[in-house]
From TrEMBL:
Residues 5-220 form the PHP domain. SUPFAM superfamilies: PHP domain-like (SSF89550). Keywords: Amino-acid biosynthesis, Histidine biosynthesis, Hydrolase. Its EC number is 3.1.3.15. This is Histidinol-phosphatase. Belongs to the PHP hydrolase family. HisK subfamily. NCBIfam families: hisJ_fam. The keyword Hydrolase applies. It catalyses: L-histidinol phosphate + H2O = L-histidinol + phosphate. One of its GO terms (molecular function) is histidinol-phosphatase activity. InterPro entries: Histidinol_P_phosphatase_HisJ (IPR010140), PHP_dom (IPR004013), Pol/histidinol_Pase-like (IPR016195).
Amino acid sequence: MAFTMHSHSGQFCPGHAKDQLEDIVLHAISIGYKTMGLTEHMPRTELSDLYPEELDTDPHASLAELAPRHEAYLVEAQRLQAKYASQIHILIGIESEFIRASYGPLIEKLAAPACIDYILGSIHHTAGIPIDFDKAMYIQAKDACGGLEMSLYQSYFDEQWVMLQELKPRVVGHFDLIRLLSDDPARDLKSWDGGRLWEKVLRNLELVASYGGWLECNTSALRKGLADPYPARPIAEEWVKIGGKFTFSDDSHGIAQVATNYIKGLDYLESLGVKEVWTLERTLVEAEKHLREKSVAISDFRESLRLE
C-alpha cells in the first residue's frame, strides 16, 4: 500500500505549490496510494518570516491571509477525508515552520484540534533565514552564522535539536535539508570539523529514536538534483544502526510531483537493508479517535503503485 506522509497543494500554499487539493488527492488515488498525509505549511506570524514570493504585493495582506487559509485547509481536509474514505485513508497534519523557539507554543496550539493526526517537524530556516529557497538566501544565512558553511550546518542542527526537544514530532521532515544548496551536498559530515558536526547529527538522531519518532525518506531531494533522498546515506545508515524507523514521502507540491522518484527511493531503502516503512492508521473506538502505527512491507508498497 503506497502512501506519502508529506504533501502540499497550490490551494493552500499558493506561489509555493500548484493545483487544488482535491485534484491532488484524486491523482494519488489513481496511481495506487492507499494513505495520504496532508501537511500544508503552518501560518507564520511575523513579516520578517515571509518568503520573497509573499512580499511581491502587499506583505501585510499576505501575512493576514495565512491564519484564515490554515483554517480553510482544515475544513477542506476533513471534507476530503470523509468524501474519499472508501478509496484512500487521508491523514491530516501540519508542517512546522520552527523559525525560532517562540514558534513552539504556536505549533502546539495549531496541532491541538482533534482533526490533526500528526506534526511534520521541519526546519526551513537557520538564523531566521530560509536555507532552501535559493542560493542567495542560503548565502545570507551562511553570513548570519559567521560566513562559514560549517558554522551554518552547526546552527542548522542546533536549531533542529531545539525543535525536536520542543515538539517531539511524529515525523521529522527532510532531516538534512541543509545540504540542498550547499557548496558540496555530498561532503562527508563524519570527518568535517573534526567530527564535531557529526556529533550533533548523532545527538539529534538519538533524540528522535528516544521518543519513537520517524525519519521520512523524502524523495524530493532526487528531483532537486541530489544523489540521495533525505537523509543522505551516512545519516540513513546511522539511523538504521540505532533501530530507527522510516516513513516515506514525496514532499509533492502539486500533481506532477506525486510519487516522483518513488522507485528510486524504495531501492535506496532496500540498499540500506530496510524492509518496511511506517505510516499511521486512524480508527474510532467508541467515537474517540485513535492512531496506531502501521508497518508496510516495501514489497507491498511497490505492488500497489501504478506508475507509467
